[in-house]
Amino acid sequence: MAAKEDAELEELIRSAGGEPEEEEDGGGLDLSTLLMVARKSLPWMLLLIALGVTASWLFLRYTPPLYKASSTLKIDEKSEAGLLLGDVGQAAEQKQNLNKLSGEVELIKSDIIYRRLKDSLELDVNYYVQGTVLESELYNLSPVRVEYTANKGAAFNQKIGLELLDNDQFKLHLPGNGSETSALTFGQPFQAAGFTLRVYKTAQYTSADRDATYSFVIQDGGTVNAYLTQNLAVDIVNPDASTISISFADHNPVKASDIVNKIDTVYLVEKLLRKQETMARATSYIDQQLGINDNKLGQAESNMQDFVKRNRVFDVKSEASLINNQLTTQEAEQEKLQEEADMLADLARLVEQERLTDREDGDVFQTIPALSTIKDGQLLQRITELSNLQLDLSQLLKSYQETTTAVKLRRSEIANIKGIIRELLRKNQQLVRRQLAKMSAKRAELEGKLQTLPEKQTEQARLQRPLELYEKYNMLMMDRKINFGISMAGTTADFQILSPATVPTVPISPVKLMVYAIGLAAGIVLGLGLIAVRYLMHNTITNIRELERNTSAAVLGVIPTYDKEKMAVSKLVVDRNPKSAISEAIRSIRTNLEFMASSKKKRLISITSTISGEGKTFVTVNLAGIIAASDQRVVILDLDMRKPKVNLAFDADNTKGVSTILIEKHTWQECVQHTSIPTLDFISAGPTPPNPSELILSSHFDELITQLHQHYDVVMIDTPPVGLVTDGILIMRKADVPIYIVRANYSKKSFLKNINKLMRANGFTKLTTILNDAKTTGGYGYGYGYGYGYGYGQGYYEEPSAPTGLLTRIRKRFS
Fold first, then answer.
1. Residue 147: what are its φ and ψ, rounded to 5°?
2. Is-cis flag, bond preceding 507, omega within 30?
């Protein structure tokens, strides 16, 4: 029998907590819980947003605004090499435009511009006045001006206080040991902080506040350079348009604007000086080159003169062309002479004929056209006479005989004329042959000269090349010298100020709208983060929706928080407050119980929870009191024999009870105790036995239940927590209505998995739940500071004391 009971006990233990853990029911985003957490966190979220906006306001209040002034320059950079080299140099310039703009940027940010800037604006001495919150720089508004000479050990970059006194006097508060000078007079030199100082009044002295705290700082060159480098920005805006932007950031807008405009000015001066220096160098170079070139040009001219004298020719190419022209002309003339010689020979043959012409009119020129080219007039005359005589003879022969005197006379005249013509032709032919011979000799001479010309032409070309080069270079240098002289007379900078710097009115930082937006966003993000963290850390049951969502057990009802009194242990309160909210809530639970067990007149109700402190005994006692108030006889059994509580609820002793009944030491009639409600009795747990589970599994427990059903309508059993021991599971198997207590804001969500596991493993289809201590107005429930004891768990009803104060009232208002 004992072995069987041990096996059953082990099975119950395995069923209660030994199964593999299954996936949590109701996983995912719980909107109701999220809304509840958000509602409770709303005051904190509003506080975080207010803190974020306040932090933004404080940041703006204690952060000096930074202003930025800027100007835009257009640079038309052209080097003198480009002027000297013409189009080639200009093409190279355009190709390297970006590099030149980068060089101009570096020039503006160089020590050359910084030195001129410091000389113009006196940036080495800064003046300040202490305001209500921030210290402001008095740029061009200082009532005094400081001149200094640095000595050994000068206190550069340290603040020196200045106090204005009456009678046009002042005194200084020196850095380091905090000492101060005696009263000093304006304009008088004095030694202080390693400087020889002179302090002068300015135009603002008359309106200066004598009670204000003034100071000044003398900065060394490195500090001023670092200040300029840190706040100056020079950027290339458009390389194609050759535009750059110069900007400067400072807490004083007027100072930022003045520095940018002054940089434009000193850059203009530097560019002019560089341009003039470049032109002076170019002019000096041109003069030097002109001197060298003049010597070389003179030598080349002397060599050319020697060549002309030696060869008696100035231009060999022209000489060759002239000879060729002469040869061509001579050849044409020779052809004409040859034609004339041929014509004279033909004429000689014609003269020997009977007639020179066959024409009736006797025009010999029509018959022999070449006669017109004969230059000898006498010959032409004689030929004409011969032609006429031959024509007369022909006419006479038509009428007279050959022997007639007239015919003979004509033939005699013709013979005389022919003799004359033959002599004239011989002379003309000799003249033409002599002319042809002269032309041949002249041609040979010209051809001989032409053969010697290539060598002379080569020599002349060799001498001509340096001569032309030196002449061209000399003319170029002279032209450039004239241009440089004109340029130097009206030198201007190669850039334009497209948009000068103006005094900025809106700071670039901090941007108020952005700072407030960041503060607001930070507050919202922190608030949302708080909600997320509280939601993720929210692992307790807070309302009936969470209970229904995370378990499949039916919910009998909700018991509100009881905050009328602070109780150390569970008490019967429904009899003292029958019309309270808690009493009405328990009556509703009683009604739901009647629906669940309406077919039974005798009912066994077990009440358990997961761990101690969830209000199991309080619900048992008060639910029993409400049922008993409906004229039903009710008895309460305290089966939590390890830590009995029912006797404490009724201020009774626990010397005997269920443990002594189950070991048959007492009868139940001897152990039953009465309460203030006539129909309500209870039996305490009795002394703690060493084996509570074995006693519950014994047959004596079933006999006890049977006997109690004979005298009572309802038997309510206060069982141990099933999360700590397995006794409660044994009792729940016997109960008609097993009830599981869940305490709001106390019971973990993971506890509900135990309820679902019990229902699946043990088939508790009638298992129901009650949400206890549900806060509806933000109050806190009854407190039970009673520990569970015996080393397995915490106290049943330990709960925090109710906080009070403004925050609690605000949270209750939002709830």
1. -115, 140
2. no
**Least trusted range by pLDDT, from 75-79, 343-347, 548-552:** 75-79
Last residue of a domain, one of 454, 474, 489: 489
Neighbours of 43 (CB within 10 A): 14
Closest Cα partner for 543 from 285, 769, 298?
Answer: 769
Cα angle 360-361-362, degrees, rounded to a multiple of 5: 90
- What radius of gyration, in Å, describes the C-alpha atoms of the chain? 68
In angstroms, rounded to a whole number, what is the distance separating the alpha carbons of residues 159 and 173? 9
Q: What is the DSSP letter of 66?
A: B
Residue 161: predicted pLDDT: 92
d(CA 432, CA 438): 10
C-beta atoms surrounding 350 within 10 Å: 19
CA distance 122 to 126: 9
Angle between helices 111-121 and 253-311 (to 10 degrees): 130
Q: Which residue has the tokens 């930070």?
A: 522
Q: Compute the CA torsion angle 223, 224, 225, 229 (nearest 10 deg).
A: 100
| Rounded Cα–Cα distance for residues 739 and 732 (Å) | 8
| Both structure tokens of 733 | 């198997």
The reported pLDDT for the residue numbered 780 is 37
The count of other CB atoms within 10 Å of the CB of residue 720 is: 29
Reported as a single tens digit per residue, the pLDDT across 401-423 is 888 888 888 888 888 888 888 88
Q: Which of 22-36, 438-452, 555-569 has the highest mean pLDDT?
A: 555-569
Amino acid at 267: Y
Domain that holds residue 620: 544-814
Say if residue 552 is in the same domain as residue 476.
no
Question: From CA 209, how far away is CA 164, in angstroms rounded?
Answer: 8
Alpha carbon of residue 25 to chain centroid: 48
Q: What is the DSSP letter of 800?
A: P
- The pTM for the full model equals 0.57
Residues near 83 by beta carbon (within 8 Å), at least 6 away in sequence = 89, 480, 483
- Please tell me the predicted confidence (pLDDT) of residue 2: 41
- Torsion sign over Cα 516, 522, 525, 528: negative
Smallest CA-to-CA distance from 628 within 567, 575, 584, 588 is with 575
For residue 619, which of 643, 602, 636, 633 has the smallest C-alpha distance? 636
Same domain, 432 and 556: no
Q: Are 373 and 343 a contacting pair, CB within 8 Å?
A: yes
Domain count, the chain: 2
pLDDT digits (tens, 9 = 90+) for 712-754: 999 999 988 887 677 778 788 888 889 999 998 888 877 887 7
Q: Which two tokens stand for residue 132?
A: 């209500």
Q: What share of the chain is helix, strand, coil (3-state, %, to 5)?
A: 55, 15, 30
Q: Alpha carbon of 225 to those of 71, 114, 244: distances in Å? A: 20, 7, 21
Write the CATH number for 730: 3.40.50.300
Strands of the sheet containing 67-75, edge to edge, are 232-238, 243-250, 67-75, 495-499
Residues 548, 429, single domain; the answer is: no
Measured over the CA atoms of residue 337, residue 338, residue 341 and residue 343, the dihedral's sign is negative
Question: Is 619 inside any structural domain?
Answer: yes
Largest CA distance in the chain: 223
Residues 720 and 799 placed together within one structural domain of the fold: yes
681 within 8 A of 636, measured Cβ to Cβ: yes
Residues ≥6 apart with Cβ < 8 Å to 241: 74
